[in-house]
Amino acid sequence: MIALNINGEDRTVDVPEDMPLLWVLRDVIGLTGTKFGCGIAQCGACTVQLDGRPVRSCVLPVASVGTRSITTIEAVGATPAGKKIQDAWLDLEVIQCGYCQSGQIMSASALLNRNPDPSDRDIDTAMSGNICRCGTYPRIRAAIKQAAKA
Amino acid sequence: MKRLGLLFLAAVVVVAAGVAIFLFKPASLPDVSEAQAKLPTGQALIDRGEYLTRAADCVACHTTAGGKPYAGGLAFKLPFGTIYSPNITADKDTGIGNWSDAEFVRALHQGIDKDGQNLYPAFSYAAYAQMTTEDALAIKAYLFSLPTIKAEAPKNELGFPFNQRYVMRFWNLLFVPSGPLQPDPAQTAEWNRGAYLVEAMAHCGECHTPRNLMFAVDNGKKFAGAELQGWKAYNISSDKKTGIGNWTDQQLFDYLSKGHAEGRGSATGSMGEAVDFSLRHLTPDDIKSIVTYVKSVPPQTSTDNAIVEAEPAALTASTAYAPSADGAAQDGLGLKLFQGACASCHGWNGEGIQTPYAALKGSRTVNDPDGTNLIQVILKGAHMTTPQGRQSMPAFANAYSDVEIAALSNYVLGHFGGKESAITPEDVATARKQ
Ligand code: FES
Ligand code: FES
Q: CATH: 3.30.70.240, 1.10.1370.30, 1.10.760.10, 2.40.10.10. Which one for B313-433?
């Protein structure tokens, strides 16, 4: 049994310690907002936050989470940065197909959390690891800037 | 004159006969009865054998990537040709199922197979020669307790004269110790245990000690580091600059037992395998003994430039999530690739965001201007089993071109090691073939 704190709730899951956190979230707990993209830490679709820091849940063995609290796309709107990001996202209609967007929002809100006024370069640095096949990058950049002003 | 000529001829004949006897005399078998009598039986013997088989890391060479354990077939590309490790499961046709105890001990101690043929020293019998007969027999008992696997190893591809196995007898005479390692009474029990584990079991020197012209481990340069199969085995002598002399005991302990030490990065490549297959299974006491012994090996200065820069400017100016403004302004291909593919796990300050295993700060691999291991890790990725699950870095060989990997490597060396490097796409192309 592995104890986790997910979106403020304590849960225990009966899974092998090697299981990637992404599988636990999606298949065991049923939080399917976090997406599976590449499975090898390359696309960012599976990004969640551990104590507010973005990590790639597809390559994170669940046993290595420890006592850090997990925030997923389902609850990031309850954090101040997450709320601002999601509002800006809706306002600017960032999303195309949406597949990458949970990960984009998790990375963007973590960025805003640690850097309330990111420059273009800061945004590049923080967001380059999140790939969007639909090419919504210009709108992502604009939305992060708008969120920073909100 | 004629008499002298005859005498000379006679001398030649005598020497030739002596050499022929030396080369072709059938190898005798050791008497193992005393050791057999001293061993436990049943599960206790198998358990001891399992531990020792791990300590000797037999699986690393006798298993192919993704293959069945101990079924052999792994290729060793040497300057004189390619040889393949044999099947050491107890299969009677393709493995060692018909080997007697004495034959097994003779193979480990003298490098001679069941039929009396000489084996090649890619099999590290020059190290195992120092193993006690009891330990060798325990290893056999463990191997024989495993499921048998039918698997014929590919035929060796060696040219003349290296395909003449008897040539190895000369080599053995020169380079193979003639009995188990004797404890040094001037040293502590811990040191002696460490010496035994390092020399007779883990055979660290087979990779970490340079080889002489005859391809034997050159113990005059013990642990000074060497390069093999496209990877560097770093200097692990107690030299402060080029070796491990500045590592704390705790760092060595962690690196050997977990594959990662704070401030030293993580083990990858063959060393990663050595930790994963072998060292992490050893008891803490045994790891401590190894640390004690390795630290006592006299310093050897090597010419290798993989010297860790403690506080590279670019690194100290970075946070986990961003390089300094100046650093980011460089804006080259390497930086772009790093920020897209690497930064989210490794972090810009080298602390390792995704996992401590991704920490790059202080690792020799990101401090080696040759980029030897760095290129390999980028191409092949890395894996380590840990109590917190399996940690992995994906392989990027198919994702990026030689030009990209060269740029990325140069960027990483500059940022994390403060090194000026000049890795070219050709270097990456060469590394891909290894
Ligand atoms: S699914 Fe995790 S990074 Fe792509
Ligand atoms: S919106 Fe379609 S992949 Fe990003």
A: 1.10.760.10
